[in-house]
Amino acid sequence: MELWFTEEHTDFARFSIKVDEHLYTGQSEFQRIDVFKSKEFGTFFTLDGLMMLTEKDEFIYHEMIVHVPLATNLRVKNVLVIGGGDGGTVRELTRYDTIESIDMVEIDQQVVDVCRRYLPQTSCKLDDPRVKLHFEDGLKFVRTKENAYDLIIVDSTDPFGPGEGLFTKEFYGNCFKALKSDGILVNQHESPYYEEDAKDMQRAHKRIRELFPVCRVYQAHIPTYPSGHWLFGFASKKYDPVRDLNEQAWNALGLKTKYYNTELHKGCFALPTYVLELLANA
Ligand code: SAM
Question: Which domain holds residue 8?
Fold first, then answer.
C-alpha cells in the first residue's frame, strides 16, 4: 500500500510527496500538527494539512528570511521573531555573535515541542542563551512594545486561523512602533502565482507600504511551497536592502550558506513583470 501526503494548492492543482512513515499526529488548541518521513524531502511537518517545512528545502526559506536583513544591517542586536516554532529562523539568527537577544513569540507550544522531538535540524538552537521563548499570540505581544527591536521577522502561517491577525494593519502598525528608528521588518509574503495566494500577498503589501518609508519585496524558489515561487517583504524605516547591502562585511564573517549569497541578495529584488504589476496594483 502506498501512502502519499497531498496538499491542495488550488481547487484544481495538487502537490504530493510519497510518505514512508507518519511519525506524529496531534491536535493542539490552535491547529492539527503532523510529521511525516519521506525519501525525497526527508522529515517534513504540516499544520492543518499545509506544508510548513521539509528537511531538504528549509534552508532556502530560513537563509532568505534572516541573511537578507542582517547583510543590510550588521549592527542588529535585538530581534523579535513572530511564529517560527520550528526554530529554523532562530537557528540562522544565532549564527551572528553580534545579536544580543532574540524574543521568539509562538502561539502554539505544541509546535515547538513536536519540532524539538522530530526536527532537531531546525530546532537545535532554541536553547541558545540569547533566545527567550514566549508562548502567546504575536498580535498581542507586539501591542505593548515600543522602540525595542532592530529587526522583526514575521515567520507566520498563512492569513487564516491563528495567523490571520499577523496580516492586519493593526499588527503592522504595532510592528512599526516596536521597531527602533532604523528598524527592519521582514515577513513571509506568500506567493504571487496562484490567484488566492496573490490576493493575500497584495493585501499584505498594501498595508505595509502605507506605513514604512522603505517597502521592498524579494523572491526565492522553494520547491515544496505552492507554485515554488515565494516572496518575502522587506520594510524599513531607514535601510534600503540593495543600496545599504554590506557586501564586504557580510562576506568577511565567513558564514557558510547553501542558498544565500551577496550576489543573490542583489538579484532577488529584481522581480518578474507580472509580480511588479501585482505589487503596483495592490
Ligand atoms: N515557514 C512556514 C511557512 O511559511 O509555511 C511557517 C513556519 S512556522 C511553523 C509558523 C508558525 O507561526 C506556526 O508554528 C504557528 O503556530 C505560528 N503562528 C501562527 N499564528 C501566530 C500568532 N498569531 N502568533 C504567534 N505565532 C503564530
Answer: 3-52
